[in-house]
Design brief:
single chain, alpha+beta, seven-stranded antiparallel sheet, 10 helices, 7 strands, globular
Length: 267
């Protein structure tokens, strides 16, 4: 793995803010790259980028993103974002600027037949603006789904170990976290905090990356059926067309999300 050690402040100043865009802008007029079963081994280089952002109780927290060719894709409160490579990691390191800031690693994943634009088209309705949650639906969740769409690989469990621990022991874990956060704030600022610092984002409730993976697999299956795809889609009329959260084949995904994967897969 290559380790990035550039000076974050210098590089950030060289990049104009307008070069970081929401995927709605990035995907305008985009065409897919022909996904489906044989998405590995294409013309698009895929790299996983990770930065250590937290160490607590022997556990390490990470921020991850995916680079496809010359563009970085990551997920935050604004939704899926497209930026120059390493942008989200540079900004995060510049903000922390502490002596114990973690290193950033670039891990080559391989070549994919899917482009960055195809990735955006496939996942943008699963990872919408306002649905981010620091534990239940974060940057690592997106990277996991993105890697599967691009290369048929899953994110190494070491990158989301803290999230899995928290979500598997909720609500006990979140109560303990809030007590720790309140005690920390009071200790460092002298201000008493009564409210919970962390609450689960209701827009992330019921989300599962496994449902996204299942939809990607379904799109690959549909794509392999060639001309029967359109007929199959037309026959599936059990879902409401204007329900943003309904799904024909998966419970927690939505129709627009499934259609976006099919469109990206067909190119």
């Amino acid at each position: 793995d290559a380790v990035w050690r550039a000076r974050p402040r210098t590089v950030v100043s060289a990049w104009r803010p307008e070069r970081v865009c929401h995927v709605a802008e990035f995907a305008m007029g985009a065409a897919g790259s022909g996904a489906g079963r044989n998405r590995v081994g294409g013309a698009h280089e895929v790299v996983l980028v990770s930065t250590e952002i937290l160490r607590v109780a022997g556990l390490t927290g990470f921020h991850t993103s995916v680079i496809v060719d010359d563009r970085e894709f990551f997920f935050d409160r604004e939704g899926i974002m497209a930026a120059p490579p390493l942008w989200s990691h540079i900004v995060g390191r510049a903000k922390s600027a502490g002596p114990n800031e973690g290193k950033t690693q670039m891990t080559p994943v391989g070549m994919s037949s899917n482009s960055g634009k195809a990735l955006v088209e496939a996942l943008m309705y699963f990872f919408e603006k306002g649905t981010y949650d620091i534990f239940y639906k974060n940057c690592n969740t997106f990277s996991d789904a993105a890697l599967y769409f691009l290369a048929g690989q899953r994110l190494d469990p070491k990158y989301n170990r803290i999230e899995r621990l928290i979500t598997s022991t909720n609500p006990i874990s979140t109560r303990i976290l809030n007590r720790m956060f309140r005690a920390f704030v009071q200790h460092t600022t002298g201000t008493t905090v009564d409210a919970d610092i962390y609450t689960t984002n209701p827009e992330a409730e019921g989300f599962s990356v496994e449902d996204v993976v299942a939809s990607i697999d379904e799109a690959a299956e549909s794509d392999s059926d060639d001309d029967t795809d359109d007929d199959d889609d037309g026959a599936q009329s059990d879902c409401s067309a204007d329900s943003a959260r309904s799904l024909c084949c998966h419970v927690t995904s939505n129709r627009r999300a499934r259609e976006s994967i099919l469109l990206a897969a067909r190119g």
